Amino acid sequence: MDPRLVQLAYLVSAVLFILGLKGLTRPRSAVRGNLLGACGLLVAVVVTLFGAGLDYRLIVGGLVVGTVIGAVFAIRVQMTEMPQMVALFNGFGGAASTLVAGANLVQTDSFGADTLVATALSGMIGAVTFSGSLIAWGKLKEFRQLEEIRIPAQQIVNALLVLSCVGLTVFMANGDGSTMTVVAYWGISALALLLGVTLVVSIGGADMPVVIALLNSYSGLAAAATGFVLSNTVLIISGSLVGASGLILTRIMCVAMNRSLPNVLFGTMGSSGSTLNADDVYANVKSTSAEEVAMLLEVANRVVIVPGYGMAVAQAQHTVSDLRKILVARQVEVDFAIHPVAGRMPGHMNVLLAEANVPYEALREMDEINPTMEQADVTIVLGANDVVNPLARTDPQSAIAGMPIIDADKSRTVIVIKRSLSPGFAKIPNPLFAAENTLMLFEDGRKAIQDIINALNES
Amino acid sequence: MNFLLATEPVAKLVETSTEAASTSADTVMLLLTVFVLAVFIGVEVITKIPPTLHTPLMSGSNAISGIALVGAVLAAGSGDSMLPKILGCVAVTLATINVVGGFMVTHRMLGMFRRKD
Questions:
Q1: Distance between CA A219 and CA A206 in Å, rounded?
Q2: Which domain holds residue A452?
Q3: Do A25 and B50 lie within an 8 Å CB cutoff?
Q4: pLDDT digit string, tens, across residues B19-47
Q5: A242 found inside a domain
Q6: Between the ranges A232-246, A384-398, B11-25, where is the mean pLDDT highest?
């Protein structure tokens, strides 16, 4: 095939990717956007398959196996497990980039310094993405062993690993494609694998949205670096689109926690100067029953539900959706207040509630709903903690000082559904639980909501 | 393998003439230009995506980053030595999982966001 035709096809697929992402700006056009993106990829792959005289045996095998595994994943995965799946897929993308750059290093006969630096970068970013994603996946799966791993002098270890990678990259750039260059490449990749582990292993649960978004960005950058290795524009364009997307999400997540990216990656949470004692804070906690909550809901005009990761853990999204339907049928206005970092990945709550048939119009962003929280008769906090902690506003010494929160405390009555008074990720007590207008319902999220529904139906 | 800009084995040319060295530099600069401009397009488009769709955005863009599949196909299908072909084949498998799984799960998720009554 004429190389220019191949280039033209790559251009078409790059345009399809951009249109596809544009489609994702509105729920109504999003399905079409995703399909456009898929078409873009199909065009790029088909043209590559027929663009050069290739030996198809290994390719077809890989394509078939990959398609089957990918499809099974996509069909089987539960919506609560989306963060794990995205983490895993990020890793696969990264690994593919490392392998491609490595294979090219053996096959090619062009050893310009620029190509070699791009190869080194591709290996490094790809390997960090791969091992970092696997660790993130394990953390999301809540493997205990991972929680116990502590890396001594972590910052120094990270710095040494990065410096060694840079050193080997410089060595490679002056190389001539001999065996030593290849060895240096795999050395970089191995060190980067370690780096991915040391970077991610100490980052905790509630910071996972940032990590996943960042790894998402890395998987794109790895593909872009591979694009530089192969002088392939479609890899560069789509890689940089994904890189940009991941970086934007990372930034949004950091802003929503009032923390800088280095603080999330290297900082330790909870080491604040605050002296609040949990026993003092929780001296006047009032607990309640499902029946009492049902009575409050019966006379309410406006109800706000604040979901958090606990809702996902309890698989309570369908029950909550049922509660909403019952209340809406009784002319109650029901909104969901979604904090940007609620859950384990950006948009996690929205997907769960969409799965449970809650219309997206009922899902309100934090900035949109906060000014109206005073008009809420009842606010139900379900499995959220730090994102409704008023200390963020009042205590400048607190670990979460300055973090934007959902102003649940401003509504007339707050119901907090939680199994115990255990702290959230920030490991600080939450005065909201003991506030005068707060009632605690100590119960598993799904069971509590079901009990409330039963009580509502009986009355 | 390098379709773009007729990058003949650039390094060989570099070794033989200074004129060719500038060709290589041009190629890199052009690729860099493409990269930077694409980042800007990405930022412009993606900033407009509402938080409701951030998870589908992640899984969808994740699928797009499986574009490394193109490189993997080239690696698995060309050359004579076995090792790079096997590396390429593994890369094809991993990237395909990424692509197929990513787009399919995004499709499934977006189906849930359809307007409901």
A1: 21
A2: 278-458
A3: yes
A4: 444 557 788 899 999 999 999 999 999 99
A5: no
A6: A232-246
